[in-house]
Amino acid sequence: MSIEVENLRKVFQVREGSRGLGGSLRGLIRPQRREVVAVDGLSFSIAAGERVAFVGPNGAGKSTTIKMLTGILHPTSGSIRVLGLEPSRERKQLAYKVGTVFGQRTQLWYHLPARDTFDLLRYVYDLDGDTYARRRDELVEMFAIGDLISKPVRQLSLGERMRCEIVASLLPAPSVLFLDEPTIGLDVTAKATLRDLIHQLSVRDGSTVLLTSHDTGDMERVCDRVIVINHGAPLLDEPVAELRTHYIRRKVVTLMTADATVEVDLPGVTTTSHVPHRTVLEVDVEQTPVEAVVQAAMRATRLRDLTVEDPPMEEIVQAIYAQAGSKP
Predict the structure, then answer these.
(1) Tell me, what's the pLDDT at 115?
(2) Can you say whether the dihedral through the CA atoms of 139, 142, 146, 149 is positive or negative?
(3) Helix 158-170 to helix 114-124 angle, to the nearest 10 degrees?
(4) Which value, to the nearest 10 degrees, does the dihedral of the CA atoms of residues 173, 184, 197, 87 take?
(5) Residue 159 has what pLDDT?
(6) Mean pLDDT of the chain
(7) In this structure, how many other beta carbons lie within 10 angstroms of the beta carbon of residue 253?
């Protein structure tokens, strides 16, 4: 296994705020603290070459877990193994084998060209000159940043900088790549490009990817498996494809019809949008199967085209959170 986590727990001691001057003075002399549980009883394992999405709402404990997996934070209790190493005790050895990208933090020197940071990383990771040059040129071509790496990083757009950030993390050919919100703030085109490149490179190199994101597109385009957590505790761990099967209770049916309008009056079927010759229906499949909806539409009018789609993955993940929140 590339990553093994068992009963992981992280508790922070947070200083309580005090009101007024008197409260502030008392806080200096006898500070009050409370415990905040960020990660609580988390267990999972990830095999070499797996691409896993690690998702949850704000404050779920995703970034805290990533920081423990990379050795930045020490766990309060539980055990972690990444590539056979204990991150908090063997952080230096682990650093040579993993790559990390935090979407809101940079490892590139802001006022220097990205190429200079790449050259510096060659010495940080003790890479042979020929090996480094070959790997750098390959990644520069793959991520299409040849015309960017000679510009100061401050002059790059966010999407351009993120491509350079990921190349920097991939230079030592890491066995495990941790990506924390790598597409945050990017436009649709930049997101799609980055997702495809990460997936392509992981498949080619056999590297393991653990990706945290609020964007379900990242999960669908990059990963094959999803781990959902909330309040630091695990909710779900299964393949992305099965996530749809287990949690989808609705279908979206779009009808292109010869007649300007069509009505389908069946239980659990509602019209969500309509323009002449095009009607979009939402179908509760627990009340009425899609086949019955199609048959009713064909009896009412002549169909020119028909599509049946799942709801957006974002809605499915929200349904998982809502279901967890409704549990006692």
Answers:
(1) 95
(2) negative
(3) 20
(4) 20
(5) 85
(6) 86
(7) 21
